[in-house]
Every structure is written in structure tokens, then in C-alpha cells.
Specification:
Helix content: 25-40%
Largest sheet: 13 strands, mixed
Distance between the termini: 37 Å
Number of helices: 10
Radius of gyration: 23 Å
Oligomer: single chain
Number of domains: 3
Order of helices and strands: HHHHHHEEEEEEEEEEEEEHEHEHEHEE
CATH class of the largest domain: Mainly Beta
Number of strands: 18
Shape: globular
């Protein structure tokens, strides 16, 4: 049964979407996600419109403050409606403060309905197949993928996230006076204001991907102990403590972040690795047999929680046979 969203949760998500749009143009994947979210509940259109109105009113407030001239005559009556709209906003909430505090936080404050994460330490977990979005008290936003666990520790001087397992996307609000750190095993990632993901699953190396801005990845036990990453770069911190990096296209980055919309995207991915990825999201496990099957490759985008659909599509394209048993999907030769 789908979880019922409260009005405050819908308002919070609408504020985050409007904040994301305010920071710059949406990618095609982001736009598709927004469209799907809006279509999922009739209440969301109203919440989204209110969030846009709040941001527009903030812009009007700042514009009025910037253009006001000492000793100038009072504004004509045509400004009455504008002033009425502005009066619903918190006092002194200008665009300058909006940027400094983080757009998502300021919008949420305007609604007065979003429960932000407080100072101190809190733990958050996602179930298998669940994607969860968390707005933080500093204006940053955390998106957690399936089967993930994080601990958030905020002090007045430092913002630290411990990724115990799973995969998380961070949209970090800029604040040079408060370090933003993500610790995942031996790897430590530091950012000021950026968007990046960190993945820590099983025994695989810790993976860091940067969408925007710059981060420093450190794993102090290895020979190559730290690297500075820019946008569209991916780094791996392996068990020895070494850090290696490579550049990726923006399309590759977005494809690897398709999980935000409940999708898994593959590009010439081995059937073995595709099965491992699907098994992260589902109780029904995919088995691929020997290397003659496991090394065959698949390409495409699939629903993360539909292993049966993926299996039958892959079997058709690879000329394989699929057998379904309770809790299992098994690939075999025809």
C-alpha cells in the first residue's frame, strides 16, 4: 500500500522542487521526475504553485528594497496588491538572505510547515526499494537510495554525515564557515557548496560522483591519498586506501543517478552486474549462472522494482531463458 502524504510533506517537496528550479535549469531527467511527481497527486499542483508564489514574492520584496530611494514619493495605488502578497512572508526575508541561507530552507520557512533536521545526531534509514528525500537544517538536501543508512551530526562549526551503507545524493548549501563532510568507511569527502553522490555497498570501493562544484576525496591509508574532483568526475576509494578518478559525461552522471526516479540505467553492463544492482532493490533475487551468461551485456533503463520485467526483456534481447521460482529469477541457456 502506498504511503499517504500529509499536506506538510507535499508542501516540503514542492518547496524543494522550486528551490531546485531557482538554482538553474532542470535536466531532462529532473524535469521528467517533476512531471511524474506533479501527476501523482492533485494536491501537488496547488503546493507547487504556492511555492512559486512565495519565491516570486521574495523576489518582489528584494526588488522593492533595492529600488527604494530615500525621500522618494510613496508608491502609487497599483502597488497595493503587491504589498498585500508580500505581507504574508516572514519579515526581512530578502533574496540576499535566501541565497545565503539556502533556497530550500528559506522557502520551507515561508510555509512554516517543514520539519528540518536539528542540531545534534540523528539516524535515517531507507528500506529495500525506497528512495527518501531529507531537507537539512542548513538548507542542504539529502536524497537516500535503497537500503541506505546515514547518521547526521550538525554542530555550529561542522556538518558531518556518516554513510554507514547505501547510496546518497547531497545537494549542499554553501557555507564556507561550516565544513560539510561525508564519511564513508575510510573515505572522507569535503565540500563547501556542490552536488555529489557517495555510494558504499558491500565490499566494493567507496564511489564518489560530482554533478556540480568541487569536492576533495581523501582515503589516507593508500599511496594516492586524496584527489580534488570537479563536475562530471567520479572517484573510487578502494580497500587499500588509494583514490583514483576519471572524467565522465554529464549524460553518464545522470544515467547513474536514475535511481532518484526509481529507475536503473545500464550501458553495456554485464548481466552479472545488472543482477547485483537489481538485487539491491528487491527481495526477489536474480541469478545468472555461469560466465557464458553472466558476461553478456545489457543496455537500457528499467524500473528498479520490477526484476521480472527486466529479466524477460534481457532474456529476449540475449536469447536466453528465464525461470521464475519463489523468491528467485534464474537465467539459463535455451
Amino acid at each position: 500500500m502506498a504511503k499517504f502524504e500529509t499536506s506538510s510533506e507535499i508542501d516540503a517537496m514542492a518547496a524543494l522542487w522550486v528551490a531546485r528550479i531557482d538554482r538553474g535549469s532542470l535536466t531532462e531527467l529532473d524535469q521528467a521526475s517533476l512531471d511524474a511527481w506533479l501527476e501523482g497527486d492533485v494536491r501537488r499542483f496547488g503546493a507547487f504553485a504556492r511555492a512559486q508564489a512565495v519565491l516570486a514574492s521574495i523576489s518582489l520584496t528584494d526588488h522593492g528594497a533595492a529600488t527604494e530611494t530615500p525621500g522618494a514619493p510613496e508608491a502609487p495605488d497599483t502597488a497595493t496588491e503587491e504589498a498585500t502578497v508580500i505581507s504574508i512572508l516572514p519579515r526581512l526575508l530578502t533574496r540576499r538572505r535566501l541565497v545565503q541561507a539556502g533556497t530550500a530552507t528559506a522557502l520551507a520557512a515561508s510555509f512554516g510547515a517543514l520539519a528540518l533536521l536539528p542540531l545534534g545526531t540523528s539516524s535515517y534509514t531507507t528500506a529495500r526499494g525506497e528512495v527518501r528525500l531529507l531537507p537539512l537544517a542548513d538548507g542542504s538536501v539529502v536524497t537516500m537510495n535503497t537500503d541506505s543508512h546515514i547518521r547526521v551530526n550538525f554542530s555550529k562549526a561542522t556538518r558531518t554525515i556518516y554513510l554507514d551503507k547505501g547510496e546518497v545524493l547531497f545537494d549542499v548549501a554553501k557555507n564556507p564557515e561550516r565544513k560539510f563532510l561525508v564519511k564513508a568507511g575510510m573515505a572522507k569527502v569535503q565540500a563547501i557548496g556542490t552536488a555529489f553522490s557517495v555510494r558504499r555497498t558491500g565490499t566494493t570501493p567507496v564511489e564518489v560522483m560530482v554533478r556540480e562544484g568541487t569536492v576533495n576525496v581523501a582515503a589516507p591509508q593508500g599511496h594516492k591519498q586524496s584527489l580534488m574532483l570537479g563536475a562530471n568526475m567520479r572517484a573510487l576509494a578502494d580497500a587499500s586506501g588509494d583514490v583514483t578518478a576519471k572524467r565522465m559525461s554529464s549524460d553518464e552522471i545522470e544515467r547513474m543517478l536514475a535511481w532518484r526516479e526509481g529507475k536503473i540505467a545500464f550501458s553495456e553492463t554485464s548481466l552479472r552486474n545488472a543482477a547485483i544492482e537489481f538485487n539491491r532493490y528487491n527481495k526477489v533475487k536474480i541469478q545468472v549462472g555461469g560466465n557464458d551468461i553472466a558476461n553478456r551485456t545489457v543496455t537500457g533503463m528499467f524500473s528498479a522494482t520490477d526484476p521480472q520485467g527486466f529479466a524477460h526483456a534481457a532474456a529476449l534481447s540475449l536469447d536466453l531463458k528465464v525461470q521464475e521460482k519463489p523468491g528467485q529469477i534464474i537465467f539459463s541457456m535455451k
